[in-house]
Amino acid sequence: MKTILVTGGAGYIGSHTCVRLLESGYDVIIMDSLANSHSLVMDRLAAITGREPLFVETDLRDTEILNGVFAHIPIDAVIHFCGLKAVGESVARPLDYYEVNVGSTLALCRAMQEHGVRDLVFSSSATVYGAAEEMPIPETAPLGEVTNPYGRTKLMIEQIFSDLHASSPDWNLVMLRYFNPVGAHPCGLIGEDPLDTPNNLFPYITQVAAGRLPELSVYGGDYPTPDGTGVRDYIHVMDLAEGHLRALEHLDAKPGFDVFNLGTGRGCSVLEAVRTFEAVNGVPVPHRITARRPGDVAVCYADAGKARQVLGWEARLGIEDMVRDAWNWQCGNPNGYRGVMVPMDWRKVEMEVEQRR
Ligand SMILES: NC(=O)c1ccc[n+]([C@@H]2O[C@H](COP(=O)([O-])OP(=O)(O)OC[C@H]3O[C@@H](n4cnc5c(N)ncnc54)[C@H](O)[C@@H]3O)[C@@H](O)[C@H]2O)c1
């Protein structure tokens, strides 16, 4: 069975994808700095799948460690999740975003080139479409008008991969443009765990429902949409994880450079998400309509037809599953991974006491 290097595999989407990889028999190596994640994820992956990934805690830009991994482990393919992802933060700290997102990708490409690994799946984003005029958005929609450094790193990285393939067609590269990943593994052991106040709607909703935040601000109630609030294409993270397995198979079946949208193809408004959450989970989500947020578009959803036709993949889970699983994760882990007490190893304590005597 194949060995997959998963960069950023301790993170939200990476950890859910690792579950599916391990369950499907792949061997998994995770490289992650834990800049936005927690080592407890490894125990959770083992608890869910009965198999353990190999974990290397490192910044991907540490080329000595990166080359060491490629030199010592026969890697068949890479899934590259690692990166910083907060749009607002990227406006305040552009250099960090270019250094981490672009820098880690360049380091990875160099190491892959040196060690003869040519197959990679990349976490891109619907943000590369900017304010798209065509709805639903096909992969052929024009790219460009991206308004923040985070989005520009995604565009740049896609361009780097495209140039790499043009320079040497033995590179097999799939760009996956995610729409709005939400939800959690249904067992509630892994999920989205923002370090600070969440930037995304779903963790915000769950934290308001749990009483950790007072209320949800719904940015804009006067958009040209059925209920006036913004419409997005929310996709369950387990569906997204499955998309990565299909992309890996595609690398074998049809080598080359390719791009796929991963979304449901269905728009859901902010109020629809809030009301579904309340109805499915029986918990109120206090919310208030406020002014529009600069840079937000009214409507954004995917044309998911290419992934269906070429990868044989489509989203199976609906908004009810997303709100149920997001709440299940929140209830089981009120403070995310950080609130979890690691069980005390009393035997180790006894040994230490003994040694000091
Ligand atoms: N979550 C979304 O809404 C969304 C949407 C579109 C695209 N994406 C992209 O998908 C990928 C995964 O997103 P996520 O939501 O799982 O984010 P995440 O922050 O949970 O995961 C990213 C992981 O990368 C790690 N990391 C960051 N910098 C690193 C470095 N220099 N070296 C090694 N590890 C590093 C973090 O510790 C984290 O575990 C990202 O590239 C993100 O831009 C996410």
Automatic annotation (TrEMBL):
Its cofactor is NAD(+). One of its GO terms (molecular function) is UDP-glucose 4-epimerase activity. It is an enzyme of class 5 (isomerase). One of its GO terms (biological process) is galactose metabolic process. Its EC number is 5.1.3.2. Keywords: Carbohydrate metabolism, Galactose metabolism, Isomerase, NAD. Pathway: Carbohydrate metabolism; galactose metabolism. Belongs to the NAD(P)-dependent epimerase/dehydratase family. This is UDP-glucose 4-epimerase.
